[in-house]
Write a structure and sequence with these properties.
Blueprint lengths: L4 E6 L3 E5 L5 H7 L18 E5 L9 H6 L2 H5 L2 E3 L9 E4 L26 E6 L15 H10 L11 H7 L9 E6 L3 E7 L6 E7 L3 E8 L5 E8 L9 H10 L3 H24 L6 E8 L1 H7 L20 E4 H4 L8 E4 L9 H10 L8 E6 L3 E7 L2 E7 L20 E7 L6 E5 L10 E2 L1 H13 L16 E3 L5 E7 L10 E4 H25 L6 E5 L8 H6 L11 E4 L3 H11 L2 H12 L1 E3 L5 H9 L9
Parallel strand pairs: 1-5, 9-12, 12-14, 15-24, 17-26, 18-20, 24-25
Antiparallel strand pairs: 1-2, 3-4, 3-5, 6-7, 7-8, 9-10, 10-11, 13-14, 15-16, 16-17, 18-19, 21-22, 22-23
Helix pairs in contact: 6-7, 10-14, 10-15, 12-16, 14-15
């Protein structure tokens, strides 16, 4: 029998006996300790740097570690958690930058009132039962209850759901008033003892990187609470391909990913309820949106088909599920409406954004741009809609960037050049006065690239101009990195830099988006855009003028009205939650929107490398 070694994680102080040969990543996963594994644990991103002591109780450094760790870091006992294997008692310290913190920005700003046409109603039945005609004596509880309820209801009342029947059979429903939750399609979905008039709904937005919930009041149409966190699946990879790979390659991969997202939603439900003093029994309906991969994993559908050509979803249509079927801690029969999708790469979140913005009901041409781990584009007007998806990659979410991080406290999110001194200045999320920068997020990266272009540091081909202030060159005189924040001014005590490889990653992302928009316009037969709507947790919070400077957005795209709107996917989910007619709109949009597969477009391969070049400044 193999001996076991004690592994302790700091600063949380959690310990466990671990079998020899286990990687630190595997141990962290088993203890539910959040560490960043942006590449899915393949040793490619280097963001799972941890400090492990004593060093001799770990396996030798791998090639991936020798590539990602500097000699100074190795000397200070840094290792990559996905590579280092445990060979003795060990203490692991997780630096702030490696911790996969729960904080998420850009998802909880949705407020206000929305149109009401609820899919559910609550019917309160008093304990005073009407006298029964003799011919009704030989009946059952269901018939007696539904007959009484029909005089109060706005739609047919019936009880077929086994979960509602189980609740109806409980002793407490015979002792006083009861509350029926009546769904316009499913009949009674819940029977609750007592007079419970409060009726709430929950809209859920599952992003690849972030997760958000919105608690709404069915009586007022108001968003009364919201909560957001990092998507807990992120520890298995930053993008959907990593999640699909895990589901394919690990025996319990799908079960693990599904469990993480369900636990994450249940956690956010509790946070929303705590804000309002409501209870789980008060939630009568749920709507859920996400990209196609996230929706399938949530529903327990294997995403294998989304990772192989022709990249097809199991089903494009909407689904009505029960809370008990998916593991949500609500009344078991509570209905969950899962949004329809357009394709394997354009999901329910894009359909929800269309419902929210309604470009198909406008005369003007609208372009919706949702930039994140993936980039979804919708273009058109009342004559028709086109959609596509472009692989912007995780660079804009802070992954695969040497000093990249998500948009959380400590991240540089804005970069400018001081007109008086010509020096670079930056803004940090969080306590601006007291917080030193830890890294740079996507919006800061776009700003930094634009500022480097304006300063003449970044050349059109993506090279760094040697001899410029802040540019570090190698022995051959090639500019390898630009130091944005010197070590003495950063929270990590290390330079925050933009490397040549970072520039390459950014060029791939910006070219994918630019060419995607160009080809979408060509295929739709449109030459101008009247309205450009930027949305998403990232998309609505970057400075679009910087994106134009670096060629991510063309001047033609921003020649009309440009709007930055908070999370249209979440807004669409809320609209369909509170107004059941919007579900018909979502189904129609998903079926009529034309999808452009960029990989099959002959011009994409030619235009993509051309657009990696940065435009000249006078353009």
């Amino acid at each position: 029998m193999l001996p076991k070694y004690r592994l302790t994680f700091e600063p949380m102080g959690l310990s466990k006996q671990i079998t020899p040969g286990t990687t630190i990543k595997e141990a962290a996963d088993s203890m539910n300790i959040p560490i960043r594994f942006d590449c899915g644990g393949k040793g490619l991103c280097g963001n799972c740097r941890i400090i492990a002591e004593p060093r001799h109780n770990l396996s030798p450094l791998t090639e991936a570690e020798l590539d990602k760790l500097s000699p100074r870091e190795v000397k200070k006992s840094y290792r990559l958690a996905c590579q280092a294997r445990i060979e003795g008692n060990l203490t692991v310290i997780i630096p702030d930058k490696a911790a996969d913190v729960e904080e998420a920005r850009g998802k909880t700003g949705i407020k206000g009132l929305y149109r009401l046409n609820p899919p559910v109603e609550r019917i309160i039945l008093s304990e005073d039962k009407p006298s029964e005609p003799k011919q009704w004596i030989s009946t059952d509880i269901v018939n007696r209850i539904t007959r009484q309820a029909r005089s109060f209801a706005n739609c047919e009342v019936y009880i077929d759901d086994i979960e509602a029947l189980r609740q109806l059979s409980l002793p407490e429903v015979f002792t006083g008033e009861i509350t029926l939750v009546n769904h316009y399609q499913k009949g009674v979905t819940a029977v609750i003892a007592g007079n419970r008039q409060r009726s709430m709904g929950l809209a859920v937005d599952i992003g690849t990187t972030t997760l958000a919930t919105y608690l709404c009041d069915f009586r007022s149409g108001e968003v009364v609470a919201s909560a957001a966190s990092v998507n807990p699946q992120r520890r298995y990879g930053e993008d959907v391909i990593s999640r699909i790979t895990m589901a394919n390659e690990q025996v319990n991969g799908l079960k693990t990913l599904n469990g993480l997202i369900i636990d994450g939603i249940n956690h956010l439900i509790t946070r929303c309820l705590e804000q309002t003093g409501a209870s789980h029994d008060d939630i009568d309906e749920v709507t859920l949106v996400g990209n196609t991969t996230m929706e399938q994993i949530f529903a327990g559908l294997h995403p294998h088909g989304l990772g192989v050509s022709p990249y097809l979803p199991v089903s494009r249509g909407p689904r009505n599920l029960k809370a008990v079927e998916v593991g949500l801690r609500l009344n078991p029969g509570t209905n969950l409406y899962l949004f329809p999708v357009i394709s394997g790469f354009v999901g329910g979140d894009t359909v929800a954004a269309i419902v929210a913005e309604a470009p198909h009901l406008r005369d003007e041409t609208t372009l919706i741009v949702d930039i994140g781990t993936n980039g979804e584009l919708v273009l058109g007007n009342r004559k028709g809609l086109w959609a596509t998806s472009c692989a912007t990659g995780p660079a804009l979410e802070g992954a695969h960037i040497s000093c990249g991080m998500r948009a959380v406290s400590g991240a540089i999110h804005k970069v400018d050049i001081d007109p008086a001194s010509g020096e670079f200045v930056w803004s940090v999320l969080g306590d601006q006065e007291n917080m030193l920068p830890m890294g740079i997020c996507g919006s800061g990266l776009i700003d930094a690239m634009a500022a480097m272009r304006r300063a003449g540091i970044l050349l059109p081909n993506g090279r760094l101009k040697k001899g410029m202030p802040g540019v570090v060159t190698d022995e051959e005189g090639v500019g390898r990195e630009f130091v944005l924040v010197p070590a003495e001014e950063s929270a990590t005590g290390k330079n925050i830099r933009i490397t040549l490889e970072d520039v390459r990653q950014f060029q791939l992302a910006k070219s994918a988006l630019a060419v995607g928009i160009e080809l979408l316009m060509r295929n739709a037969g449109l030459t101008k855009v009247d309205r450009t709507v930027l949305t998403g947790a990232f998309g609505a919070h970057f400075r679009w003028r910087s994106a134009v400077d670096v060629g991510m957005l063309s001047p033609e795209v921003v020649s009309g009205e440009v709007l930055s709107l908070e999370n249209l996917a979440g807004v669409g989910a809320i609209m369909a939650l509170l107004d059941k007619s919007q579900r018909e709109e979502a189904a129609k949009v998903s079926q009529t929107t034309k999808f452009l597969e960029l990989a099959l477009d002959a011009d994409f391969a030619a235009r993509f490398p051309e657009n990696t070049i940065f435009p000249s400044l006078d353009e």
